[in-house]
């Protein structure tokens, strides 16, 4: 099990779903977690739930550069370092291409792509001074295996996949590792609130839908020193869904 004792980690979109599971799992492994959420009230509620001594609530709308700057500065002022960033915040819109509006496309890219870009830029100067850091981007299998009626979502995730690999090349010499997780169908409110059919697991070789903790455990590995030689890696966590089946 990865050891995150005394690691300082910022998790975005930490108030629900995969982000909440990641934050809770990190605390259980000894980390101090900066809980980022668009609504500070939500961040404070999670901080109270997982332990105020081990967590720091920060307001962080990932589409706002000012929020990124303020959040990272708060982390540094509180803990004097930042060991890892988990870019988890994301949104999902399932619409046929011709029904997808420009506003839909821009919203997806602002949260899913621009938010990750600004996060990388915000933490890099501090990690460079430390000559060490880990950036974990929570992406999606849609980056390489798009589902039907979600072209804009897939495009935003494919962009993050390539951004991650490019950043890994550029930041590696500075001691900063950048890796990606590609979840499959994970049971979260975001999926439940969409019109995505998640009732059947027959197409998945492991015959079950993913759970948020499946992602949290991989995120912990990538944030920890146990993945010290992983850079530019893409770990697929989909139960084998994208391998193909005999159905």
TrEMBL record:
<dbReference type="InterPro" id="IPR020904">
    <property type="entry name" value="Sc_DH/Rdtase_CS"/>
</dbReference>
<comment type="similarity">
    <text>Belongs to the short-chain dehydrogenases/reductases (SDR) family.</text>
</comment>
<protein>
    <submittedName>
        <fullName>Glucose 1-dehydrogenase</fullName>
        <ecNumber>1.1.1.47</ecNumber>
    </submittedName>
</protein>
<keyword id="KW-0560">Oxidoreductase</keyword>
<dbReference type="InterPro" id="IPR002347">
    <property type="entry name" value="SDR_fam"/>
</dbReference>
<dbReference type="Pfam" id="PF13561">
    <property type="entry name" value="adh_short_C2"/>
</dbReference>
<dbReference type="InterPro" id="IPR036291">
    <property type="entry name" value="NAD(P)-bd_dom_sf"/>
</dbReference>
<dbReference type="GO" id="GO:0047936">
    <property type="term" value="F:glucose 1-dehydrogenase [NAD(P)+] activity"/>
</dbReference>
């Amino acid at each position: 099990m990865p050891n995150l004792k005394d690691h300082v980690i910022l998790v975005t979109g930490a108030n629900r779903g995969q982000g909440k599971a990641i934050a809770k799992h990190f605390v259980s492994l000894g980390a101090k977690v900066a809980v980022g959420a668009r609504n500070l009230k939500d961040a404070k509620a999670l901080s109270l739930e997982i332990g105020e001594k081990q967590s720091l609530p920060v307001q962080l709308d990932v589409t706002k550069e000012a929020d990124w700057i303020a959040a990272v500065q708060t982390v540094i002022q509180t803990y004097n370092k930042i060991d890892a960033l988990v870019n988890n915040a994301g949104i999902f819109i399932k619409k046929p291409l011709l029904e997808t509006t420009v506003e839909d496309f821009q919203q997806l890219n602002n949260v899913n792509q621009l938010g990750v870009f600004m996060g990388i830029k915000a933490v890099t100067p501090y990690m460079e001074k430390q000559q060490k850091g880990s950036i974990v981007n929570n992406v999606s299998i849609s980056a390489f295996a798009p589902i039907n009626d979600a072209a804009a979502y897939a495009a935003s995730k494919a962009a993050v996949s390539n951004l991650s690999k490019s950043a890994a090349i550029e930041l590696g010499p500075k001691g900063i590792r950048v890796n990606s997780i590609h979840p499959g169908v994970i049971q979260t409110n975001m999926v439940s609130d969409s019109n995505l059919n998640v009732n059947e697991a027959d197409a998945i070789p492991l015959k079950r839908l993913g759970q948020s903790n499946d992602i949290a455990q991989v995120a912990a590995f990538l944030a920890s020193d146990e993945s010290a030689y992983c850079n530019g890696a893409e770990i697929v966590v989909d139960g084998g869904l994208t391998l193909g089946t005999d159905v």
